[in-house]
Specification:
heterodimer, A: 327 residues, alpha+beta, six-stranded antiparallel β-barrel, 5 helices, 21% strand, disordered C terminus, B: 205 residues, mainly alpha, Arp2/3 complex 21 kDa subunit ARPC3, two-stranded antiparallel sheet, two-stranded antiparallel ribbon
Chain lengths: 327, 205
């Protein structure tokens, strides 16, 4: 036995077999092997975040120099605008309170009302053509677990970026919209719009485009038509903007296809937002937090409770605003 | 190898592996030329195998592969059209890159530093060619191949520019391994594959 392990060829063959078995087992959906990366993430993530912080500081430093002159001009303009905006903010606050009242009164269905949002920074990008998923800095420690639910990922304007593929302790892998393994059921954003399938494509991704298939044969898509998530399949909530049609190919009448240019430009975004469906536990916890915040403010500033509009955090605020827009 | 040399080897390899892997995936847009990103991970494994032998090549390759899988592991489409993240593909690929790099042309090249560029070019060509072939075969076998890149694109927009940017990345890495590498004077005195450096024809600059 010992002699066998002294044989280099045998050791290499053994390692190869073990690795092939590992790849095979990891390909089984729901494989427990996906948990193997968790110990690795504990070691690698802090190291990687150091590199990211260094990079951010360097880039901020250069940006500060390059943009200094521009910022000075902008500053003057902004000062003039501030005065005007302050007045608008006062009006906006009143309008918002009014909106909340109306919403409660008429039970308006907010599209993303059942979701809250976690902001995340992109840690790593693709390595090459085949190793091309993105890693972000939120994981199971913030309650995101792909074993329990699916998560849509959007940018700051609520445009679809991709979906969460796997989660580790404090980071997650995102499958971007342009990846050939990505697919989402979409609909044309008009009343009774056609349902189609948007997928990543190995060739089109180099041009920043997606492929649109399963277009009903009686439907013609025009350049500029907007597609949003349809909500079918349950992976993505309905109504998230995906992109606009770039071209339509009806050369095969039974199987028309189109290309879609996503709104999101993945190469330029630094932060993404993960949409998490509200659970009863989260709602209870959030309510408790809001109550404690409002009672704290009340006791310290002695402001009447009716005038306080509580927002859990900035990201939740984003979701609420976007939801309102969609509604 | 005494304790001091062993410590130097481990510390420097650990430092370089984490640095190159993190730099590649964090600053991919900075090291972006001709539409391709410098593949520091690949180049480092090739150089480690070529300059310092089979064991170094395989071990460094496997560790770099873990980083590759962790940061941006490949995703395939499963039977129910659901994407599945694979594990171990990077480890297997880079393990073999380290192994092949340490064995390929070792008698002809004699691990000379100036010929390491040629080794990087050869291994880059092999890796990206095999990547396209495996990708095409997988898509064909799984029935999900709608269309694939043209041969012209593969050669002139993928493999050749990638090889070129890898060669650019090889230059500073080679200097680091020579003057601040895991072994004194950039030479591993007792190469594990049985060849000595006594004839002075090995690893000369």
């Amino acid at each position: 036995m010992r002699r066998l392990f002294e044989n280099k060829a045998f050791v290499i063959a053994l390692i190869t077999v073990v690795l092939i078995a590992l790849i095979g087992f990891s390909a089984i959906p729901g494989s427990p092997l996906s948990g193997l990366t968790k110990p690795v993430s504990i070691i690698i993530d802090p190291i990687q975040s150091v590199f990211q912080k260094i990079g951010t500081k360097i880039s901020d430093f250069y940006s500060a120099i390059a943009e200094g002159m521009e910022i000075r001009k902008e500053n003057e303009q902004l000062r003039a605008e501030i005065a005007e905006l302050e007045y608008q903010v006062q009006q906006g606050d009143e309008a918002r309170i009014r909106w909340e009242e109306l919403k409660t009164a008429f039970s308006i269905q907010d599209t993303f009302e059942n979701y809250h949002i976690h902001g995340a920074s992109i840690l790593t990008r693709e390595s090459d053509e085949w190793f091309s998923v993105i890693r972000v800095n939120v994981g199971t420690d913030t309650g995101i677990d792909v074993g329990k639910a699916s998560y849509a990922v959007v940018d700051a304007r609520m445009n679809l970026v991709g979906r969460v593929m796997s989660t580790d302790v404090n980071s997650s892998k995102i499958l971007p919209i342009l990846h050939e393994g990505f697919m989402v059921s979409a609909k044309v954003n008009v009343v009774n719009g056609a349902i189609v399938l948007v997928t990543g494509d190995i060739i089109l991704k180099n041009e920043g485009l997606c492929l649109v298939t399963r277009i009903p044969s009686n439907i013609v898509l025009n350049p500029g038509d907007e597609l949003v998530t349809s909500g079918e399949g349950g992976l993505f909530p309905a109504g998230i903007p995906i992109g606009v049609i770039e071209s339509f190919d009806n050369s095969d009448p039974d199987n028309p296809t189109a290309t879609l240019r996503p709104y999101v430009e993945i190469s330029s975004i630094k932060d993404v937002f993960i949409m998490v469906q509200n659970t009863e536990e989260w709602l209870a916890e959030n309510e408790k937090q809001q109550q404690s915040e409002s009672s704290g403010e009340e006791s310290s500033e002695d402001i009447p409770n009716d005038s306080i509009v509580t927002e859990p955090n900035l990201t939740d605020n984003t979701a609420s605003e976007s939801g309102e827009e969609s509604a | 190898m005494n304790k001091k040399e062993r410590a130097r080897q481990i510390i420097i390899y650990a430092l370089y592996i984490t640095s190159f892997c993190c730099i590649q995936v964090t600053f991919s847009r900075v090291f972006h030329l001709f539409g391709r990103t410098c593949d520091f991970m690949l180049v480092f494994v090739v150089l480690a195998g070529y300059l310092f032998g089979t064991v170094d090549g395989m071990v460094v390759g496997a560790i770099v592969g873990v980083f590759r899988d962790y940061f941006s592991g490949p995703v395939i489409t499963g039977m129910n059209r659901q994407p599945i993240a694979l594990m171990g593909v990077g480890v297997l690929s880079f393990f073999y890159i380290g192994l092949v790099s340490s064995l390929l042309f070792r008698k002809k090249f004699r691990r000379k530093y100036n010929l390491s560029f040629l080794q990087v070019a050869i291994l880059s060509l092999i890796y990206y060619s095999l990547g396209h072939i495996v990708s095409w075969v997988y898509l064909t076998v799984s029935g999900s191949l709608v269309h694939y890149h043209s041969l012209r694109y593969i050669v002139f927009s993928s493999i050749l520019p990638q090889t070129f940017v890898n060669l650019l990345a090889a230059f500073p890495m080679l200097l680091l391994l020579r003057f601040a590498g895991p072994y004194k004077k950039g030479v591993r005195s007792s190469l594990v594959d049985g060849y000595s450096v006594e004839d002075r024809k090995w690893q000369s600059i």
